[in-house]
Amino acid sequence: MSAPEISIVVPVLNEARRIVPLVRRFAGDPRVELIVADGGSTDGTPDLAARAGAHVVSAARGRGAQQNAGARRARGAILLFLHVDTQLPSGALDVVVRSAAAAGVAGGGFRFALDRASGGLRLVVGLTNLRTRFLRAPYGDQALFVKRCVFKKMGGFRELAIMEDLDFVRRMKKHGRIVVLPMEATTSSRRWMANGVLRTSLVNRLAVLMWTAGVSDRRIRKTYDRLLRRGDAETARVTVDEIG
After folding, report:
1. Same domain, 92 and 34
2. How many domains does the chain have?
3. Which of 73, 89, 145, 166 has most Cβ atoms within 10 angstroms of its Cβ?
4. Is residue 244, in this structure, part of any structural domain at all?
5. Model pTM?
6. Which domain holds residue 108?
7. What pLDDT is attached to residue 212?
């Protein structure tokens, strides 16, 4: 069996409502290997994913550990890490393959978009894309992709309690150029809706500042969970992504 061009790794935890539509988006595409990395779901997510056509691997809970487990299973020359509530635009995989083939490129991500367009959320999107443009720093909910050979040289994700995507992108920069694709990956606004746009944005910014100051990932995780422990339990599990 020939290797796929790209392996898509989706870390999940109790995402029974969302996993089947995501798997079906890529079903039948011979270029794609879809791997669902489950962190201990109790709602049947792994069985649903497998029946829909995904390869399923089990891992310790946490996006770093889950994405590493998925990457170990992957056979594609390109790894793309996709959050279950993020949708890729039409034609995205062709653009990823072409971009990764360019000389000196280590990996990259997409422009950021949200599925709602209120005034506060438009500001979140604008600031995120401004940061991405000038710092060349896409993060987890911007569908990070990386050459598998680069991923191996990096030793994969550090299995942190939080901030694993920020850490990964900063280390990836040492291995080549990071590209930001002009297409938008659209993410659910559920985090901001559950906790409020201003509150969520400020807490995310605080987490990044703590990380930059050298605070441990476990302490940041505790602070983040304490400040955003409102809304549904599903939202409280979401790992922070820096939002500009």
Report:
1. yes
2. 2
3. 145
4. no
5. 0.91
6. 6-188
7. 92
- What is residue 242's predicted lDDT score, i.e. its pLDDT? 35
What is the maximum alpha-carbon separation in the chain? 50
Task: Give domain status of residue 47, yes or no.
Answer: yes
CA distance 172 to 135: 13
User: Are residues 175 and 194 both part of a single domain?
Assistant: no
- Report, as ranges of residue numbers, the positions in the chain whose pLDDT lies below 70: 1, 229-244
Give CA–CA dist 223/234, Å, rounded.
18
Beta-carbon contacts of residue 104 (< 8 Å; ≥ 6 apart): 176, 177
Residues 231 and 196: their CA atoms lie apart, in Å, by 9
CATH number reported for the structural domain that contains residue 16 in this entry: 3.90.550.10
Contacts of 227 (CB under 8 A, 6+ apart): 199, 203, 206
Q: Does 166 share its domain with 220?
A: no
Least Cα distance to 146 among 165, 163, 130 occurs for: 165
pLDDT tens figures, 77-120: 999 999 999 999 999 999 999 999 999 999 999 999 999 988 89
Q: Which two tokens stand for residue 10?
A: 């989706």
The edge-to-edge listing of strands for the beta sheet with 86-87 is 55-58, 32-38, 6-12, 78-81, 144-147, 105-114, 177-187, 86-87
Say if CB 28 and CB 55 are below 8 A apart. no
